Amino acid sequence: xxxxxxxxxxxVALDLPAGTDIEALELGVNPQWxxxxxxxxxxxxxxxxxxxxxxxxxxxxxxxxxxIEILKRYGVAL
Length: 78
Hints:
The protein is mostly helical. It has a single domain (2-73), classed as Non-ribosomal Peptide Synthetase Peptidyl Carrier Protein, Chain A (Orthogonal Bundle), CATH 1.10.1200. It has four helices and no strands. It has helices at 2-13, 35-49, 55-60, 64-73. α1 (2-13) runs antiparallel to α2 (35-49). The longest helix has 15 residues, at 35-49. The radius of gyration is 11 Å and the shape is globular. It starts with a helix and ends in a 5-residue tail after the last helix.
């Protein structure tokens, strides 16, 4: 269930078109996931999961896969 919530958070925060392979996204590679998109994604994830990401995790969150691993450390069950 949480994986679908994460995918939805990415889609909403980055305003991704339908059919985007969200799990293949990388910061700076997809035009929507630039620094501004990243700053929209962070609060979207924090709000959906009731967490506060620290600065080191914000920097490390540069792929969808890395985001999953970081969220796991905050207790998000996948």
